[in-house]
Amino acid sequence: MRSIFEKLDLMDKREIAAILDEIGVFLELKGENPFKVRAYQSAARILDRLEDDLGELIKAKQLRSIKGIGAALADNIETLHQEGSLPFYEELKASIEPGLIEMLTIPGLGPKKVKAVYGKLGLTSIDQLRLACEEGKVAALPGFGKQSQAKILSGIEHRELYNQRHLWWNAFAIAEPILEGLRKLKQTEKAEHAGSLRRCLETVGDLDFLVASEDPDPIMHWFTHQEGVAEVTALGQTKSSIRLESGLQADLRVVPLKQFYFALHHFTGSKDHNVMMRQRALSMGYSLSEWGLTPEEGGRKVTTIKSEAALFKKLGLNYIPPELREGTAEIAAAEKGTLPELVQEEDIRGVFHNHTTASDGRHTLEEMVAAAQDLGWEYLGISDHSKSSVQANGLNEERVLRQIEAIEKLNQSKQFKTYVFSGIECDILKDGDLDLDQSVLEALDYVVISIHSGFTQDEEAMTRRIIKAIEHPCSTMLGHPTGRLLLEREPYAVNMQKVIDAAIANKVMIEINANPRRLDMDWRLWHKAAEKGLMTCINPDAHAAERLIYYKAGVQVARKGWLTKESVFNTNNLKSVKNYLLSTS
Ligand code: DGT
Ligand code: CA
Ligand code: CA
Ligand code: ZN
């Protein structure tokens, strides 16, 4: 869905071409005159390849003089460019069963075939189509056959896989070697990630790569022939798309070097951010696109800039890091010069929510500390599960006291440079009580409070339960506050605003659980919460030594949440951390 804001804005050539293409498909689906169908399809191609500025062509009334664009088409293009919508298109789309439009997204199923299964079998949804394939009805249609039926079935199955979003962490692991491969090609002048991956969004729809080169063909060839490509879905001079065996899709765009930073900014997005940037450009008399910055009232187009920072500067803005480009308050802050100095990976000096073999971790206390020392950390907090988490071999009071002793001994032995704090990840019981005796909690350096059971309480009960635990005098920080697992499990019902207020009032931190499947509390809540005074601690929730590295994903969440290191507890040095924990425990 295009947003209202976007409708106010000029549509670019690519967007218009996509709509013309869609009109062609819809007309074909309805069995319209093939000449009309082809006219829309070829106009889409012409527009896609057009080098000139569309706005200028329209102003100079030259659009209809282009071969292949007749008067009716030119009118439609002008309307789309100026209004951002086209009644003819909207009506056409509304006249088609939504299920048929969805069928068009199945690989190998074009408008002709969709028309046939609709016309001959009366199928109006993908589910019905799947059933008809399974019953062999589709193979019997003229022009289909067994092979085609099998292809449609597998297309339906894959579609479900391809439609999924992917965890940022997994997507990055796939994207990194591709970017390296692109950078190694001798035709490549510059190469970068773009899209949601570069913005460090918690999940990624598809990968976007941008390359600067005068010689795109070999680059496109490498991209579409690399290992792991399951299907090439588009191959062109400026853009190619692939589907990887992992189900992840990837777009590559190749542009001339002088256009690189405009394109990088554009394809980094987000769409909302781009809309706001274009509006700002317009208000300053420019039109901004992936090609450059063009004065509205004539004059020289700004085509060369040496960095994204230069683009922001031309629009009177400070540099906005990609993580902040979500179309919230970043442009206003960049104008006023009040963008925060975001916390960085190097600022982290230790982490607090980690498990050992004492509960359900895979590595011993010593192995975990050794790994923390390798990361150069000054301290490491150990917080195994408490006794109610039976499946995780949670610690009872006696075992906690023994672990405290073991940690004390380890610190005294000076075996490691990294200092160890004794903590616990204490279950919040159904009524909001904590799982361990207060005397034992008091003996610990800190207490992470978490929910691991009773997820189905209603919002009021759950909120009350968590707030009661926050009010416990021994609570230091709230672990994974909503219990969500990205792409797997919804958060439990909880009023986070009330939880945030209670945490601030009781000087309890809310963690950023940096496990890539959690990233909880969500970045969208942090900007306001931190302004109100909420502190966080970035924790990997590591159940193995090699997972301490997850802290990096947590830093990204903090950055997306506008956090400076002042709001992140574990950027403090050992001495301040000791002071704080001793004074509160
Ligand atoms: P994703 O892939 O769903 O996680 O999200 P993105 O942000 O990577 O979106 P994607 O891959 O569709 O496009 C990459 C960027 O390109 C997007 O963030 C902004 C820009 N872009 C793409 N399509 C449009 C559009 O129709 N309008 C505007 N203004 N920008 C677009
Ligand atoms: Ca993307
Ligand atoms: Ca994309
Ligand atoms: Zn937990």
Q: Work out the helicity level.
A: 40-55%
Characterize the overall form.
globular
CATH-defined topology of the largest domain = TIM Barrel
What is the fourth-level CATH superfamily of the largest domain? Metal-dependent hydrolases
Q: Decide which structural class fits the backbone.
A: alpha/beta
Report the sheet-strand fraction. 5-15%
Tell me, rounded to a whole number, the average pLDDT.
93
Bound molecules: 2'-deoxyguanosine-5'-triphosphate, calcium ion, zinc ion
Structure, described:
About 45% of the residues lie in helices and about 15% in strands. It has about 575 residues and is an alpha/beta fold. Residues about 1-10 have low confidence and may be disordered. It has 4 domains: about 15-165, DNA polymerase, domain 1, CATH 1.10.150.110; about 165-205 and about 215-250, Beta Polymerase, domain 2 (2-Layer Sandwich), CATH 3.30.460; about 260-335, DNA polymerase, thumb domain (Beta Polymerase, domain 3), CATH 3.30.210; about 345-585, Metal-dependent hydrolases (TIM Barrel), CATH 3.20.20.140. The longest helix has 18 residues, at about 145-160. The two termini are about 50 Å apart. A 7-stranded parallel beta sheet has the order 10-11-12-13-14-15-16. It is built from 25 helices and 16 strands. One calcium ion binds near residues 195, 196, 206 and 208.
